[in-house]
């Protein structure tokens, strides 16, 4: 029971708990991930600028293992942080998270994308197939870059088939999140050329009717405004992400 | 004229076995001599459906329910923008779930069960943690051996917990039936009624049934999310039935917590 001065009852760090289990009181600890505070009473802070002081119990909100972490030394609030970490986490997009998305449609006013991974975690198949609950986002011209935001032409920044790293600005509406690429590390990661891959055997004689994304040439960023084809060297305009 | 082309059945035939399930009466007592306050042992296993975000299989002797949870994900229904999440519950009773075959597909009772399960589960979920997304819950009743609504609710709670959906508490359901011990004598219109917790199918079909009570309870929050009471009884009996259900919920909660924390 080493650190259980903070944890209530006979719980200790490393115990598996279920939702609703009371972990600690707010007097001695702060709520971290996987927990919530059940408010017993609230009172205003001493001065007008102080936040509401909430007294209550910290309860688990998912099945997981209890963790107790120390706060940062420079933190004003020196209570330990109680969190419950589940074995598996299914990522869901929230404002501020970084996503990888594939561009599906581009129009002069917006580019619509299908979100494939959130914060580095790939979404399971049930969350990616359109029609069964896929996350989709919209990129508007004013959110593409930081400078000259009103003079952006979307067709020179992203194209259908590109893989884009973006940040979620907001929940948007029911169907689409609002995305932004206005940061040096955001933008096109890998692009698909407007021209076909050399050596793919597709030419004017064979017809251009059913070209898929994989027939088009892969392009990589060379500067923040240009991508170059890996085989042909053909250049196209994109708003590119700074490669890591 | 005797038919010589085939071997004929004997003239006297009887059906192989009549329906051996006779409804329980006050006189016959509970099926199998079960104690009035005894809840059936449960078998609960989670992560039975690898495709779903969370899933669970719950068996209480003759009642078997399986539940799959997908989400939080974008809702497939056209809905106005909400800053809290929604849940979408679908219940399906299998054609082989009862003694008589049901037509495949959803029937009217499934819709009613789904609405009740949704009502029971909503207060236990932290919907503001997944705005504009929806959690889809699919419940399939594999076998109906009585107390199917509490089994569906408990199964869905376990599946939601195994899916990692943020919850306030586990919503546990339990029901009782009230059996009138004897025909009411004149002047004593409410004779001794006995309460049987977690009834099976034969007990729910009893001709002496005077009423029933179902309670969905969240132990840590000490709140009830669903209460269904049928029949007529004096207030003392209704209160007694309610407290009996609560006691059943608490004992089920202990067992379900054990199952959920044991599954690694």
Overview of the molecule:
The complex is a heterodimer of chains A (244) and B (264). Chain A is built from no helices and 17 strands. By secondary structure, chain A is mainly β. Chain A has two domains: 16-85, OB fold (Dihydrolipoamide Acetyltransferase, E2P) (Beta Barrel); 98-237, Nucleic acid-binding proteins (OB fold (Dihydrolipoamide Acetyltransferase, E2P)). Chain A is elongated and about 75 Å long. The relative contact order of chain A is 0.11. The mean pLDDT of chain A is 83. Chain B is of the alpha+beta class. Chain B has a single domain (41-263), classed as GHMP Kinase, N-terminal domain (Ribosomal Protein S5, domain 2, 2-Layer Sandwich), CATH 3.30.230.70. Chain B contains four helices and nine strands, in the order ββββαβαββαββα. Chain B has helices at residues 108-121, 148-163, 201-204, 235-262, and strands spanning 43-46, 54-60, 63-74, 86-93, 133-143, 172-180, 193-197, 209-218, 223-231. Chain B has a five-stranded mixed beta sheet with strand order 1-2-3-5-4. A four-stranded antiparallel beta sheet of chain B has the order 7-6-8-9, with helices on both faces. The model of chain B is unreliable at 185-189 (pLDDT under 50). Classes of the chains: A mainly beta (244), B alpha+beta (264).
């Amino acid at each position: 029971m080493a650190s259980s001065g903070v944890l209530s009852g006979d719980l200790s760090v490393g115990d598996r708990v279920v939702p609703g289990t009371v972990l600690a009181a707010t007097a001695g600890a702060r709520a971290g991930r996987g927990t919530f505070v059940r408010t017993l009473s609230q009172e205003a802070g001493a001065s007008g600028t102080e936040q509401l002081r909430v007294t209550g119990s910290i309860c688990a909100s998912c099945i997981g293992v209890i963790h107790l972490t120390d706060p940062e030394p420079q933190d004003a609030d020196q209570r330990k942080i109680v969190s419950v970490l589940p074995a598996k986490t299914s990522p869901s997009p929230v404002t501020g998270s970084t996503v990888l998305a594939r561009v599906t449609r581009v129009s002069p006013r917006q580019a619509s994308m299908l979100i494939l991974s959130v914060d580095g975690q790939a979404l399971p198949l049930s969350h990616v197939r359109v029609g069964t609950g896929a996350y989709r986002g919209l990129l508007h011209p004013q959110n593409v870059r930081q400078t000259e935001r009103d003079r952006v032409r979307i067709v020179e920044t992203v194209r259908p088939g590109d893989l884009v790293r973006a940040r979620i600005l907001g929940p948007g509406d029911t169907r689409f999140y609002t995305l932004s690429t206005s940061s040096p590390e955001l933008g096109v990661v890998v692009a698909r050329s407007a021209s076909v891959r050399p050596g793919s055997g597709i030419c004017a004689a064979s017809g251009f009717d059913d070209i898929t994304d994989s027939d088009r040439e892969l392009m990589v960023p060379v500067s923040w405004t240009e991508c170059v084809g890996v085989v042909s060297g053909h250049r196209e305009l994109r708003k590119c992400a700074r490669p890591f | 004229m005797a038919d010589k082309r085939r071997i004929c059945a004997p003239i006297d035939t009887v059906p192989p076995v009549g329906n051996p399930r006779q409804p329980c009466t006050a006189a016959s007592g509970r099926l199998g001599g079960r104690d009035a306050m005894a809840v059936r042992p449960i078998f609960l296993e989670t992560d039975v459906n690898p495709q779903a975000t969370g899933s669970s299989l719950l068996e209480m002797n003759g009642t078997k329910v399986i539940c799959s949870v997908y989400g939080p994900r974008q809702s497939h229904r056209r809905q106005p923008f909400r800053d809290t999440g929604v849940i979408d519950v679908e219940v399906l009773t299998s054609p082989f779930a009862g003694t008589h075959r049901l037509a495949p597909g959803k029937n009217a009772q499934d819709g009613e069960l789904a609405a009740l399960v949704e009502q029971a589960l909503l207060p236990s979920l932290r919907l503001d943690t997944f705005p504009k997304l929806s959690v889809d819950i699919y419940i399939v009743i594999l076998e109906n051996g009585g107390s199917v609504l509490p089994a569906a609710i408990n199964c869905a709670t376990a599946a939601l917990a195994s899916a990692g959906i943020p919850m306030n508490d586990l919503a546990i359901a339990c029901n009782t039936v009230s059996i009138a011990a004897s025909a009411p004598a004149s002047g004593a219109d409410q004779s001794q009624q006995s309460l049987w917790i977690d009834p099976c199918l034969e007990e729910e079909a009893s001709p002496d049934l005077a009423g029933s009570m179902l309670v969905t309870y969240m132990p840590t929050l000490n709140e009830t999310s669903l209460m269904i009471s049928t029949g007529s009884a004096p207030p003392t009996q209704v209160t007694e039935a309610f407290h009996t259900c609560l006691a059943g919920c608490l004992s089920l909660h202990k067992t379900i917590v054990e199952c959920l924390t044991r599954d690694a």
